[in-house]
Specification:
Length: 187
């Protein structure tokens, strides 16, 4: 950093994570459940609206807001199969599996796609129900597991409130944003 020239020199970020990270950006999902955490009637009560004029908008906002909260919290609010590639090189406590709660068994694969036997990795329980941690001697591994809350009633109330607040924001501010020529949202 050169203060006389008001110049910042930041090191170039590495192209790949240095250690303990999800590779390829985000996990991929399949076999997603169709039961949303909130019903349109619950949302309409929260928004204090009556009638069915906005039902299609509300249904769309429920799904969009759920997905935003899932990305933000790295949690699965609906049941799904999660496939993730992990780089694990440092630490004795393990790597927390993203988009939990993890339900059932975890299948691990080598980078070439060959399924690994359970002796080459260990999945440990975390402090909270559904938290799972990976321990392995492999520096890179692929995992596949079932995740998500089993029913809307099992989702914590604070997460449901966060979804309702997000829906309220999007509903009340729809049309207030525009896209610029590059596809970025303008406020």
């Amino acid at each position: 950093m050169n203060y006389r020239r008001n110049e910042d020199k930041w090191p170039v970020a590495p192209e790949r994570p240095l250690y303990n990270a999800v590779l390829d950006g985000e996990p991929s999902f399949s076999d997603e459940g169709t039961t949303e955490p909130l019903t349109p009637d619950q949302v309409k009560e929260w928004l204090r609206i009556t009638g069915s004029t906005n039902d299609s908008v509300i249904t769309m906002l429920i799904t969009a807001s759920r997905r935003e909260i899932e990305r933000e919290l790295q949690v699965s609010l609906i049941t799904r199969t999660v496939m993730v590639r992990i780089k694990y090189e440092v630490g004795e406590s393990g790597f927390k599996l993203p988009y939990g709660p993890v339900r059932g068994s975890v299948t691990a694969y080598a980078t070439d796609g060959e399924e690994l036997d359970s002796g080459s990795y260990e999945i440990r329980d975390g402090a909270s129900p559904g938290d799972k941690y990976l321990m392995t001697h492999f520096s890179e591994i692929k995992l596949e597991y079932e995740a998500g809350y089993t029913s809307p009633g099992s989702i914590p109330a604070d997460i449901k409130l966060k979804i309702l607040d997000r829906i309220n924001y999007h509903f009340r501010n729809r049309g207030d944003k525009r896209l610029n020529s590059t596809g970025q949202w303008l406020v």
